[in-house]
Amino acid sequence: MSGGAASPRARFAALLRDLGLRPGPGAQALDLGAGSGFQAIPLAEAGFTVTALDLSQVLLTELAGEAGALPVRGVHADLRELKLHCPTPAPEVIVCMGDTLSHLPSLDAVASLLRDAATSIAPEGHLLLGFRDHTAERTAAQRFIPVRSDADRIFTCFLDYRPTHLAVHDIVHTRTAAGWSMAVSAYEKIRLAPAWVRAQLLAAGFVVVRDTAENGLVTLVARHPATS
What we know:
- This protein has helices at residues 6-19, 40-46, 57-67, 82-85, 107-120, 194-203, and strands at 28-32, 49-54, 72-76, 93-96, 126-132, 144-149, 153-161, 165-176, 179-190, 207-214, 217-223.
- The protein is α/β, with parallel strands linked by helices.
- Strand 6 (144-149) and strand 7 (153-161) form a beta hairpin.
């Protein structure tokens, strides 16, 4: 889906440099929904000691192999349990990227996660969020999205809009010796509105220091005040 790990890791490393997030000795980072390490590995390479939470043990095993000797600790847990697994000292950076927020079950769960991040992060720490803006509905044929393809595989996504959620259907065609085969999976995501997420950050006590959107992908960077 991502076309390999190199490109997303490089983009996140560039974001860290652009934000000037340079860790001091013993600096901690918490990666929520870490997956195979698109954010965790650049954080560790930058000098952070990283705690990486994910519900997929398969992805955490892949992350461990990719991280090698880097200071990354994988934790098989729900990201909503961040307070149980938050490192000590408090993390200077908490990240939740890759549209992970939208996989939470409700807006209340998102708001609760942001409040927990605010009470877990170090003073002047930064929270980095990434999610897709699905507030505007695609219609008709626009709901079919060609994600990625090569000579042997075609990945297409179909979107079905509901009032509060989005049903996502992933369709993968794979060329085999016997011809083309098709696999389909479906799941729901919350339709997150950027303005609503910004309001929740402010209510939790954060200050939004960066707010960008590119091709529907929103990146919000928030800083916690010096006093907590």
